[in-house]
TrEMBL record:
Keywords: Membrane, Transmembrane, Transmembrane helix
CDD domains (UniProt xref): LPLAT_MGAT-like
Domain Phospholipid/glycerol acyltransferase: 126-250
Organism domain of life: Eukaryota
Pfam families in the record: Acyltransferase (PF01553)
TM segment ranges: 60-86
GO cellular component: membrane
Protein name: Phospholipid/glycerol acyltransferase domain-containing protein
Source taxonomy: Eukaryota, Metazoa, Spiralia, Lophotrochozoa, Annelida
Amino acid sequence: MDDCVDQCAASSNNWSDFTASCLSESWNWLLYLYHTYLEEAFLFVHAHYLDVYYFGWLAWVFWPLVITFVLPAVLIIFVYASALFLQVYRLRHHIRDAYAMEPWEGARQMICVFWDATGHLWHGFEIDGIEKLPENGPGLLVYYHGAIPIDVYYIISKLLLKKKRILRTVGDRFLFMIPGLRLLMQVFHVVPGTVKSCAELVKDGHLLAIAPGGVREAYFSDSYYNVLWGKRTGFAKIALEANVPIYPVFTRNCRETIRSLSIGRTWLRWIYEKTRMPLVPIYGGFPVKLKTYIGDPIYPDPNATADEFALQVKNAMESLIAEHQPIPGNILRALYERAYPATIPTSELKASGDHPTDLTNRHLS
């Protein structure tokens, strides 16, 4: 019996040695094949068909183009990072903070610190005229809409950190269809908004921001900063019904940091008018100088119609643009202003005495 066991053990050892020998031989054969054929083939292709310096030159040429489309994606990542932070915050502080303070106050503060730091470091963001806004009480901010309203993110952060006020905003309907952003819009009080609901908000003493141009102005305006409000008068109706002042708000160079492609704009606008889907490619994310100007309050005349009051606010917005924005906008100039901050030059409007519409028409011609 013992002899049988010994024979089996010997046979097993012989089989293990044989297997190890086969694996070793196979590995040596693969190495030989690589060194003999594959390495030589690679060197041949590299020498005759590939030019490393040429591909390096191509990378150098196209790198700026790639960056211009990557930076807006980084901005979107920041937005989703804010939304993800709120999800984590809700799980962590759902019970504890519910009894200590307003549940989302700490989360809002932290997100606003992040966006305020981003605005300071990337754009040297400033606000001129923030003291015009009331410490308490209502107000309606009407702002010019850039391709992406990153300036509004900075304004919301400044108001919360400096004046301890939450700026509620009216968002386009398509925003509420974007997955993953519902909680973010809930915490920062972004509302779809009707005239009645918005009037109730400001009657309750809140600050509310609205862009009458909306998506149409965001993607289909251009470097001449044309105000594309069409026949929209809802913001004027809100101010008249609630009897609150309107503050025109404009950010210098807001169309130079992120731009929408002008190629195929006519067809893209036709698609938008039919479907209300903003299918316009954007590019940029350039670190240009951004400075927001808050105009003097415009108080509603109870005897004025909504159309008349809307036209008054639109004229004020055009004056603000003509006073503070060089026309046409220029990315290189805006980058220079970021690198070398200087006093904003005297506007062409003040020098010429033209109405802003006349000024814009003169540039267009």
